[in-house]
Amino acid sequence: MKAQVLNNNNNQHHHHTYLNKKLKAKSLYCKQTPNNTNKKSAKMFASKVSDYENFFKRPAQPSNAEQFFRDTLDNGERRYDDLCRNIINDMNEYGLSVVDDFLGVEKGLQILNEVHGMYSAGVFQDGQLVNNLREEKLRTIRGDKITWVKGVEPGCANVGYLINQIDAVICRANTMKNNGQLGNYNIKERTKAMVACYPGSGSHYVVHVDNPNKDGRVITAIYYLNVNWDTERSGGVLRIFPEHGNSVADIEPKFDRLIFFWSDRRNPHEVQPSHRTRYAITVWYFDANEREAALNRIKNNKNNVKSTIDTTTTTTNATNRQ
């Protein structure tokens, strides 16, 4: 179920399930000849050139450099394609997909620092439900605190980078040939990113469905930011109950882990009690047709309510005149 891993720092590509090895990108050195050098400096430079020639099978001339960069881009494209193909296969078979080491440690920590900054600034609020409940009742259902960001706000550059990378994966997977169930959807829009914090002390979210009423959301993408997470001690597991299976999927909220699953009734899920601060960033992707139908329903409902109010007002006025 674990999809291929894409490291966007381009320094390693790690695939837990399929490859179990790391690939390191090569550095490119271009040889140059200095002008007006004395014998001592010329000798030192010749030694360096000799070292480079021993390192490479042939010196990197401009034409070779062009080919190197073309090959590097092709390798990057293939890595994206492999990642998306594995996600497609997982979504077809399991209804969810797990990608580990998505951005790498350095970028993941930069995102975590930005989230810490948001939390310290006091911008998080209690998560809400569609039907607004009293605060004490709400906390028995969901105990997270959230804030919504576009990724372009001050102090959100790295969160914005994460959103762009997830966008790239979803868009590519949605437009690839032979993309299975993903091909049934036309994904053009998404929500803002919801940054969530479960502040420990058993905070949780009971079993629910993200999109039970066809509001347009088709894919849920969650990125986790929890360094050295120990499920045995800290809990906080995301448990998914896929509709087409008798088993459950327990997803640990590990650092730099990205997961995808269908947002509708195919995947009821819960966040089990968390005994340590737990951070996640969630983005929902819309199917254009379902989203348009949902917006039309909302518009029609508003018009019907307005029509009812106008009719009631007119009837009342007529009665008063009598």
Automatic annotation (TrEMBL):
<dbReference type="GO" id="GO:0160082">
    <property type="term" value="F:hypoxia-inducible factor-proline dioxygenase activity"/>
</dbReference>
<keyword id="KW-0408">Iron</keyword>
<feature type="domain" description="Fe2OG dioxygenase">
    <location>
        <begin position="189"/>
        <end position="287"/>
    </location>
</feature>
<keyword id="KW-0223">Dioxygenase</keyword>
<dbReference type="InterPro" id="IPR051559">
    <property type="entry name" value="HIF_prolyl_hydroxylases"/>
</dbReference>
<dbReference type="GO" id="GO:0005634">
    <property type="term" value="C:nucleus"/>
</dbReference>
<dbReference type="InterPro" id="IPR044862">
    <property type="entry name" value="Pro_4_hyd_alph_FE2OG_OXY"/>
</dbReference>
<dbReference type="InterPro" id="IPR005123">
    <property type="entry name" value="Oxoglu/Fe-dep_dioxygenase_dom"/>
</dbReference>
<keyword id="KW-0479">Metal-binding</keyword>
<protein>
    <recommendedName>
        <fullName>hypoxia-inducible factor-proline dioxygenase</fullName>
        <ecNumber>1.14.11.29</ecNumber>
    </recommendedName>
</protein>
<dbReference type="GO" id="GO:0071456">
    <property type="term" value="P:cellular response to hypoxia"/>
</dbReference>
<dbReference type="GO" id="GO:0031418">
    <property type="term" value="F:L-ascorbic acid binding"/>
</dbReference>
<keyword id="KW-0539">Nucleus</keyword>
<dbReference type="InterPro" id="IPR006620">
    <property type="entry name" value="Pro_4_hyd_alph"/>
</dbReference>
<keyword id="KW-0560">Oxidoreductase</keyword>
<dbReference type="GO" id="GO:0008198">
    <property type="term" value="F:ferrous iron binding"/>
</dbReference>
<dbReference type="Pfam" id="PF13640">
    <property type="entry name" value="2OG-FeII_Oxy_3"/>
</dbReference>
<keyword id="KW-0847">Vitamin C</keyword>
